[in-house]
Each structure stands twice: as C-alpha cells, then as structure tokens.
Amino acid sequence: MADVRTAVAGQADPVVVGAREPYGPRPRPVLSRRNIIVYGTLTIVALYYLMPLYVMIVTSLKGMPEIRFGNVFAPPVEITFEPWVKAWATACTGLNCDGLSRGFWNSVRITIPSVIISILIASVNGYALANWRFKGANIFFTILIVGAFIPYQVMIYPIVIILREMGVYGTLTGLVIVHTIFGMPINTLLFRNYFASVPEELFKAARVDGAGFWAIYFRIMLPMSLPIFVVSMIIQVTGIWNDFLFGVVYTRPETYPMTVQLNNIVNSVQGVKEYNVNMAATLLTGLVPLVIYFISGKLFVRGIAAGAVKG
Q1: pLDDT category, 26, cuts 50, 70, 90?
Q2: Count of structural domains within the chain
Q3: Residues 109 and 55 in one domain
C-alpha cells in the first residue's frame, strides 16, 4: 500500500498516513478576554486591600511636618524610625508612657498558654468525637457547636461574676481562662472534621493491635495532624492577639493587652495627634499574626482543605 495519500485539492504538500496529529487542549492566548477579566479583577482587589497598608507604612516613616504639608500617598522624602521607637517605648497609653512594650509582653503571656491549652483540649475532644462513639457524643457535640455561635456580648456579665468568685478577675490568668473556653468549640469542630477524614482502617488496625485511646492519639493521630494544628494555631493566635473586648473588660490597666494600649494611643485626646506614631503602633500590633501566617500559610491551606472533606 502506498504511504502517501493524494494531496487535497488546492494544496501542494501531501499528507503522510500515520503521522501524529496534535492532541490535548488548544493553547489559549495569554491576552484572552478571560485572562484579562480574571487578572484585572484580582489586581484591582489586591490594590484595594494593599493601599491602606501602603499608606500606613509610608506615614509611619515620615515626620509630622511632611505629613501635614505632603501627599498621603507620596513616599517619605526623609525616612525616620522615630515614630516606631516612640510607639514601642515612650508613647502614652493612659497614665503610663512606656509605649506598647508592656502591652506586648502582656499579650504574649495571654496568647501562649491560651493557644496551647485550648488546642490540646480541642484536639482530644475532636479525636474522641470522630473515633470513639461514647454515650452522649452527639449531644456533647451539639452543645459545642451551639457554644461556638453564642455572641460573646451575652456572656460578658456572667463571666465577670464567675471570675470574681474564683478570685482571678482583672488578672492575666482570668483572661487566659476566658480565651481557652471560647476557643474550644470552633477548634473542636475543626479537629473532629479532620480526624473524620483520616482513613478508618488505620484506627481499626491500631485497635486490633491492642492500642488504646491515648496510644492511638499520640502514635497515629498526632503525627498526621500537623496541618490542622497549624490551622487551629493561626485561628487562635489571630483571635486572641487581636482581641479588644475581653482585654478591656477582664483586665486592669497594668495588665492590658497590646490592642487595648493601641486604642489608648490612637484615641488619646491629649497633645497633638501624631499620625506617624499611630500608624507605627498599629503595624507593631498586627505584626505577630502576620508573621505567623506568612510562615505557615501553606500548612494553613492544607489543613482547611483536609478538614473540609468530611463533616
């Protein structure tokens, strides 16, 4: 048989039989209408959210004369870090003029134990609800879910009375207890959904081998749960570090967290409004959650995706 077919009328080159034809999706042009719409929308949204951050950064690096007579969007003509130093060390936050440094260490002492205790308890709760069907598990889980959606404002006065009777009202210990309790419902839900997505065969095999509740938890579940621990940590750190309501209600001026001191700096009615110091103080206050998220962002996405597989 001949390997060459007759050329199509009007074409000079013959078509070889058996030659491979292109396969797969046709390449899309880079400047297609779809790409222009998608990337254009993403660019506009990104600029919308980044513009306030840009204004805060450039304002915090300017002196007050340049802020008064310059353009708010213009970069600083002469960069100065004096507003950052003042916001950290000498800005007045009420009766004290020691900046945000005291509030920073108060927030650290509040956040670390609250995050660790609430995550550990929530992980055990989620593990038990996902793999050990004890009597009343569904009722317990329902109570936790309802607790996650109760407005905090409803519970303020009863918690004040409870903390007062316990003798820890106005202390960092009392605020740690509050954050730990309010953080458990949503974190229990996250851990329960994550552990439910783990193959059940692993749990059954461990049970057959004689492993008990704690052996399965520490030897099997914990090594597989790094993504959801990161998710829970980011949620807790962000919520506790940025909290203002509980900090101002359940503590005293000497134990105020960083956000309460930031409010006192920004809303101070004494002296001249120093916008550069206010912007620097705001950036310092939000620095810790941002750093934690940027360091562990990929694990955060993995944990959220894994926890959404089963409900």
Answers
A1: low
A2: 2
A3: no
